[in-house]
Structures are given as C-alpha cells and as structure tokens.
Amino acid sequence: MKLKTLLLTLCLAGTVTFAQKVKYSKEEIKKMETYLFNEGFNSPSPKKTSTIILKDGTTHKGFCGKIDTKKGQIYEVALKDSITKKNEIFNAEQINEMYVYPTNAEKIAKVGKYMGNIRNFGTKKLTKNTDGGRIHFVNQTVSLKNKKDDKEFLMQLINPEFSDIISVYHDPRAKETNGFSMMGSPQLGGGVIKSYYVKKGDKIMWLHKDDFEDNYEFLFGDNTEFMKKYPKNSVEWDYFSFLVSEYTSMKNG
C-alpha cells in the first residue's frame, strides 16, 4: 500500500512538473535565439587611442603597445601616453576601467567566422563584428574557471546596455558548440558560445552551459513573473543573452 502511494505521489509530481513547462511559438523561439551580447574581442588595437581610468581616479590616454594575459585575461597593459609619448605599464590591480578599440584584423576574422555559419544569419547582427566602437573592460576579481585563486583581471563587459543587475563578461577561452559542414560549405548549427563570466550582486562566477540549470534560480529566481514565463525546464542555454535582457527589463519594470 505504501509503495502504491509513493508511486502515485511521484506520478503526480511528474505531472505537475510537466504541466509547468511552457511551449513557445516559432516567433518567440526565434526572438529568444537572437544573440544580444556584444562580440567578444581579444586583441585591442595599438593604433587607436585607448583610455585607462585608474582606481585613484586619474585618466590616461595613449596607445596600447603591449598587453600581457593569463588564461586569456588581461592583467597588465603597456600604454604610450598620447601627449608625453612616455611608456607606462599598469597592472590590472591599478585599473578600474579601460576603453580600447578592436584590431581590424580581428574584426575581419570575426566577419569571416560569421559568414561561415548559416545559423548566424538568423541569430546575430553582422554589425556586432564590424562595429568600430570602443570595447569596455572592467576590473573584476575572479577565480578563472572557478578553479584558480581569486585575482584581479580586466574583463570585457559584453552586455553594457543591460548590465545594471547581471553583468556578463567575455570568456576569451570559451569553446563553441559543434555544427556540421560538408566539403567547405557554410556550417550548419553549432557556434553557440559555451561559457561566460557572470556577475550578480557580489558574486561573480564562470558560467558554463552545463551548469546553467544549476544556477538558474540564482540568476533569475528572485523574479516570480519571469520564472513563470520562462521556467528553466522550458528554456535553453542558446537563449541566455535574451533571458538576461528580458529579466533585466522585467526587474526594472
């Protein structure tokens, strides 16, 4: 009798869970798959004027002559002052923010990559690869891949238009999902970035697609309306940029 009761309870629980799943229209899915983050760039241009704002409030403008990285993240910047022509070296620990421009070579490479995947045509804007605007880096103390000791790095903010609650940073070492290509034809599917660094409140973490469900409540669980509209059993990692944008919009009213 107890076994039958237990099986019935599990069955009802499964039914409730299934009933909570939301089905979206093709138009809604297409909207959710649209990539809203800025393109991640790894090579600041040494030919355009960069701006560094130190923690002490002073601003330095010049050309990036050398950038040292660790695990892809910037931790030291060499700047040639645009007025004095003096070379200065700044550690990430000294810098609060930095604004640089992407190299033309990397922009061209990004365009080539964009054209090489058919999926991009429906989910990304080509202008994100060719835009000559400044890249915004912010000093953050992080544990690389949640495994290393905490250290300060300059990380590229890729959602500046909607980062007031959840900030998302480019992972220079992120991998992408696999697609399919035949005899040099454009790739079908794949191309979805697998990881970012994400900050909400005082917590910043490396978020991999495999850990998305485990962190869904932390990211979005404080908004009941959002969770009802986008329960975690109804969405996918592919929708992440949309979900962050939508959550921010709903949270801000």
* Number of continuous helical runs: 8
Strand order of the largest sheet: 4-3-2-1-5-6-7
Task: Characterize the overall form.
Answer: globular
Query: Could you estimate the helical fraction of the residues in percent?
Result: 25-40%
Q: Which structural class fits the helix and strand makeup?
A: alpha+beta
Keywords: Signal
Signal peptide: 1-19
Give a description of the structure.
Keywords: Signal. Residues 1-19 form the signal peptide. The chain has 253 residues and is of the alpha+beta class. It has 2 domains: 23-38 and 159-175 and 193-252, no CATH class; 40-119 and 129-157, SH3 type barrels (Roll), CATH 2.30.30. Helices cover 27% and strands 26% of the residues. It is built from 8 helices and 10 strands. The strands form 2 sheets. The chain has a 7-stranded antiparallel β-sheet, with no helix packed on it. Strands 8-9-10 form a 3-stranded antiparallel β-sheet, with no helix packed on it. A hairpin with a 4-residue loop joins strand 1 and strand 2 (59-70). The N and C termini lie far apart (51 Å).
